[in-house]
């Protein structure tokens, strides 16, 4: 395995930051904090580069009249207006907040409303796509928790609602146990992935 | 005084990481000597390999959705898995007329996805085929990310969508678009809500740590296989610790 200079730098800096978390040496913690501050600055720059990428992709769509380029035109216009308003008046000025409150929030809320419908259809499609025991347990549990979340036509069923009802039982025991099991798996996977980067096996930073 | 107070949480953490690292190195050595059994088959990855082949034959595009998590937080692990998945898919599909496209909701991930794609093309001597637009920032909030991904799925002849990264429940909008456009979806996330949504809405969901095994199943190298085996060992150790702890608590010792 060939080790490049960028890999050596990434491994060395990653190792120092990791050591800063585990070894109680003030100087090491200071180095870790400095590196993390640098990382924050780089993240900000990366976001700017990403925004340029977003603009250029949609600009290309408009100039080459690709399919549905009208949406890209709307995006570019909104992009420029937002940058100008926030850049000129400041991000906390009334005009900037107006854009946020009366355009972005309603649009995202509408998408959230659509999400409810999409999820309902996804549940129905699940029966068609993968009909097995796990699907039945998944849908049955979702239905019980959903019905048990609020009184049924104003009536609370003792077996379903309340602190000792079926809903609470599912939410407090099997759901928590399952969630913890999944999170342990995710944590182990995250450690393994991080160690592969520290070992120089995964190098997404090398172009 | 309990165990962690006696030794210090930091020391336990350091020992945990070092043992994990030692296990990975040990399994790499074993992987190279080919003394280990193959990994258990996972249907999602078999189907992904088939879909990559079909997409290349049909001249269609593969879409890798890297999510909207950065690489500095807890969600960085799933984002890095997404990037190594992109690397494997780009290599496998490099003979295609239409290279894979990666969408992300974080500037760093966008740059890394472009780097990954460039690296693949450079390594196979096709640098001139690299397109900077193969790695795109599509939106930085959960719903703007989902909304920005939809045109890629609808307009760019995508045959299969691989969702590997940090998502929330908004991932359902992406899977719905994939379903409508007739593309296959394979998805995994570090977020529990997204995992539940992907179980219901994607063709091939990856549950829990299955996402982190993607590299191993796409033949990314012995280190990927070794890290999956190290995870398995630690999973059994954790199960034993939980069971022993529960038993000690039950008998009033702990």
Number of helical segments of chain B? 10
Mean pLDDT of chain A: 90
As a whole number of angstroms, the C-alpha radius of gyration of chain B is 20 Å
Largest sheet of chain B: 6 strands, parallel
Principal-axis shape of chain B: globular
Instruction: Please provide the ordered H/E string of secondary-structure elements of chain B.
Output: HHHEHEHEHEHEHEHH
> What class do helices, strands and sheet pairing of chain A give?
mainly alpha
Tally of strands of chain A: 0
CATH class of the largest domain in chain B: Alpha Beta
Q: Any idea what the shape of chain A is? A: extended
Descriptive labels:
heterodimer, A: 207 residues, mainly alpha, 7 helices, 78% helix, extended, B: alpha/beta, Rossmann fold, six-stranded parallel β-sheet, 6 strands, globular
Word description of this protein:
- Chain A is mostly helical and 207 residues long.
- In chain B, α2 packs across α10.
- Chain B has a six-stranded parallel sheet with strand order 3-2-1-4-5-6, sandwiched between helices.
- Chain B is globular, with a radius of gyration of 20 Å.
- By secondary structure, chain B is an alpha/beta fold.
- In chain B, α7 links the parallel β4 and β5.
- The model of chain B has no long low-confidence stretch (mean pLDDT 90).
- Chain B contains ten helices and six strands; from the N terminus they run αααβαβαβαβαβαβαα.
């Amino acid at each position: 395995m060939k080790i490049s200079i960028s890999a050596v730098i990434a491994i060395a800096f990653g190792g120092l930051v990791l050591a800063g978390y585990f070894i109680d040496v003030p100087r090491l913690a200071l180095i870790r904090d400095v590196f993390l501050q640098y990382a924050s600055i780089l993240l900000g720059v990366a976001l700017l580069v990403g925004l340029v990428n977003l603009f250029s992709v949609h600009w290309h769509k408009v100039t080459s009249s690709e399919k549905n380029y009208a949406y890209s035109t709307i995006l570019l216009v909104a992009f420029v207006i937002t940058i100008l308003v926030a850049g000129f008046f400041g991000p906390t000025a009334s005009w900037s907040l107006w854009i946020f409150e009366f355009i972005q929030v309603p649009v995202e809320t509408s998408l959230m409303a659509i999400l409810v419908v999409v999820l309902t259809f996804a549940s129905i499609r699940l029966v068609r796509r993968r009909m097995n025991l796990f699907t039945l347990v998944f849908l049955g549990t979702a239905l019980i928790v959903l019905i048990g979340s609020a009184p049924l036509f104003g009536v609370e069923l003792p077996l379903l609602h309340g602190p000792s009802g079926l809903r609470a039982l599912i939410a407090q025991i099997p759901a928590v146990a399952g969630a913890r099991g999944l999170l342990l798996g995710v944590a182990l996977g995250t450690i393994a992935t991080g160690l592969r980067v520290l070992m120089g096996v995964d190098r997404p930073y090398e172009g | 005084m309990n165990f962690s107070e006696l030794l210090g949480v930091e020391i336990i953490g350091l020992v945990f990481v070092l043992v994990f690292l030692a296990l990975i190195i040990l399994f790499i050595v074993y992987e190279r000597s080919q003394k280990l059994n193959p990994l258990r088959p996972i249907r999602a990855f078999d189907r992904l390999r088939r879909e990559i082949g079909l997409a290349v034959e049909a001249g269609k595009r593969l879409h890798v959705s890297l999510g909207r998590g950065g690489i500095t937080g807890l969600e960085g692990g799933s984002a890095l898995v997404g990037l190594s998945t992109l690397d494997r898919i780009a290599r496998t599909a490099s003979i295609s007329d239409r290279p894979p496209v990666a969408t992300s909701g974080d500037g760093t991930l966008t740059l890394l996805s472009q780097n990954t794609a460039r690296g693949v093309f450079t390594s196979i001597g096709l640098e001139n085929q690299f397109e900077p637009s193969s790695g795109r920032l599509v939106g930085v909030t959960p719903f703007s990310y989902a909304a920005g991904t939809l045109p890629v799925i609808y307009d760019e002849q995508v045959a299969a969508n691989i969702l590997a990264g940090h998502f929330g429940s908004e991932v359902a909008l992406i899977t719905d678009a994939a379903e409508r456009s007739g593309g296959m979806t394979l998805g995994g996330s570090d977020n529990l809500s997204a995992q539940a949504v992907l179980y219901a809405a994607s063709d091939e969901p990856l549950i829990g740590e299955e996402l982190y095994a993607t590299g191993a199943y796409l033949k990314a190298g012995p280190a990927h296989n070794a890290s999956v085996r190290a995870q398995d060992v630690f999973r059994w150790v954790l199960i034993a610790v939980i069971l022993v702890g529960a038993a000690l608590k039950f008998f009033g010792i702990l």
